[in-house]
Amino acid sequence: MPTPSHLANPRYFDFRAARRVPETHAWPGLHDHPVVDGGAPGPDAVPVVDLAGAADEPRAAVVAQVARAAEQWGAFLLTGHGVPAELLARVEDRIATMFALPADDKMRAVRGPGDACGYGSPPISSFFSKCMWSEGYTFSPANLRADLRKLWPKAGDDYTSFCDVMEEFHKHMRALADKLLELFLMALGLTDEQVGGVEAERRIAETMTATMHLNWYPRCPDPRRALGLIAHTDSGFFTFVLQSLVPGLQLFRHAPDRWVAVPAVPGAFVVNVGDLFHILTNGRFHSVYHRAVVNRDLDRISLGYFLGPPPHAKVAPLREAVPPGRTPAYRAVTWPEYMGVRKKAFTTGASALKMVALAAAAAAADLDDDAGAGAAAEPVVHQQLLVSS
Ligand SMILES: C=C1C[C@]23C[C@@]1(O)CC[C@H]2[C@@]12CCC[C@@](C)(C(=O)O1)[C@H]2[C@@H]3C(=O)O
Ligand SMILES: O=C(O)CCC(=O)C(=O)O
Ligand SMILES: [Fe+2]
């Protein structure tokens, strides 16, 4: 019998056929920090923001929940958001159908070097010598039907239903992103009038763009040796993560260093603060290190809906976020510029946020990794894993 061509393709690792985790996929240092349950009551309980209360006036309680979560965790579970559960079920179902495509079809859509969209490992994987136990697909919802022809060149029913469902989802998510941006800005202390009326804030809301990245974490014969997605901070403003009912997302918390396992709450999104929001808020809302682990018996699917500025827009601390008498803690950067800095940071082991910090203000605000709640706490994952690019 001839070998199917995808098995002959050295770029495709067949997770389904793997009976063990090969050295190429075995990560050292995965258990350097304990894992605690973020679904149990107590100080490690992942904060919950329930938007069902945000429709009533005053919204002060919801705004306070957002402020606390963004300042102390850089992440929270979002419930009561109004995106229908039945739509989320269809989204997951379509994603599963996409990942079940034959390897040849997926490899045809592979992300080329420097491409924003495409199939395969996420961009961050290029900085590490080990491979992750996952496959991913990135696309722009604004360019959905054209992007998805990479996977389904002949279109057809699966293509059409995938695009229809994702378009419906994107419409809901874009509106939800606007609502959450408003709450974030109010949580920074801006009034309703400032949110809609101040030029800088209005421009952010009007130009914010969305990117979708889908993750498939196949079940794994030895989940303690493998890693679904390496610890990272998201680089944009903020991200909605939809995780299937199989948990796997973990948030890094400092002092003591530990991983907090985010519970899989049906219908909830996890919201992560990204690096550009960290900069925009002058470090008051901090980006959060997170990773995804894999499971022995079950596949896991997740979806990241990433919000950020358009490529040409400079992001700098908002005037309202800089305390009186202080200077901004970060210089202005565009998203592509920041990705360039982060690439350099990965190859040198430095912190990308520190590389864009303004020295004098950084010293005054004590932007040290050990600064506590205001700093993006960083797990020790870099030394042994970096490859130079
Ligand atoms: C908008 C984006 C954020 C992202 C890079 C991307 O262009 C599309 C994929 C996103 C993702 C998902 C997995 C982790 C991550 C670090 C990566 O390598 O690709 C993020 C990127 C990010 O937040 O920087
Ligand atoms: O799979 C997850 O839960 C996390 C995904 C994620 O962090 C990402 O896509 O950036
Ligand atoms: Fe992420």
From TrEMBL:
PANTHER family: 2-OXOGLUTARATE (2OG) AND FE(II)-DEPENDENT OXYGENASE SUPERFAMILY PROTEIN-RELATED
UniProt KW keywords: Dioxygenase, Iron, Metal-binding, Oxidoreductase
InterPro entries (UniProt xref): DIOX_N, IPNS-like_FE2OG_OXY, IPNS-like_sf, Iron_ascorbate_oxido_reductase, Oxoglu/Fe-dep_dioxygenase_dom
Top-level class of the enzyme under EC nomenclature: oxidoreductase
Protein name: gibberellin 3beta-dioxygenase
Biological-process GO terms, alphabetical: gibberellin biosynthetic process
Pfam families: 2OG-FeII_Oxy, DIOX_N
GO molecular function, one term: metal ion binding
Domain of life according to the entry: Eukaryota
Enzyme Commission number: 1.14.11.15
Organism (species): Sorghum bicolor
The UniProt record lists the keyword Coiled coil: no
Entry keyword Metal-binding: yes
Record domain Fe2OG dioxygenase: where: 208-309
Cofactor(s) the protein requires to work: L-ascorbate
Family recorded in the similarity comment: Belongs to the iron/ascorbate-dependent oxidoreductase family.
Lineage of producing organism: Eukaryota, Viridiplantae, Streptophyta, Embryophyta, Tracheophyta
Catalysis: reaction(s): gibberellin A20 + 2-oxoglutarate + O2 = gibberellin A1 + succinate + CO2
